Amino acid sequence: MIRTFVVDDDFMSASIHRSYVERVPGFEAVGEGHTGAEALSAVHRLRPDLLLLDIYLPDMSGLEVIRRLRQADEPVDVIAVTAAKDVKTLRTAMQGGVVHYLVKPFVFETFRERLERYAALTQRMGRLRQASQGDVDHLFSLLRVDRPQRLPKGISGPTLGLVVDAAREAACEVTATDVAERAGISRGTARRYLEYLESLGSVELSLRYGATGRPEHLYRWLGPVGTR
Q1: Based on the number of CB atoms within 10 Å of its own CB, is 122 exposed (0-12), middle (13-18) or buried (19 or more)?
Q2: What is the pTM of this model?
């Protein structure tokens, strides 16, 4: 689980964002704060993996919070969740090492996509011991929000959505048969769509060998699909 602490000066916004976190599989909300001091204290006490940080705080800027975290060498990732849109703030946040910058207001689907991209990034990095240039390119691509693209022939948006939901909600390795049953489609169709998702890097394929020697294809959800 990715332990997440939410910081927003607005109590209602903090509560909503915390509820959003709790709706995303693989994430756990470990608390919420409303000032920069509370953010710094929580990171020191709770050791969250991820900090969802507003920029406009009553006692100090979120940018100052980031600066102090980096100065203290705190091992926490930061996603800025803010109404601040000026380029200077954005540049300073990037220089401070934020992994994403989410501009208010937004809907839950946008929020979930950003968290899923972050989760996919951390999962991939956790499996790497040494990264090639291709690995690095792919890691950075996981954070990029692509514009919708035309789906290839034989892949429909609605069916792709069903397969994505089935793979994502399983929260474990699944077979094409599992996905077919969850999505209400044929096994052959499920496998074709899973192969397409594998080509995008959204699912990971592994093989499990049984007594017959014929491998069973297992798929595990990794991240969002830019073409949905």
Answers
A1: middle
A2: 0.66
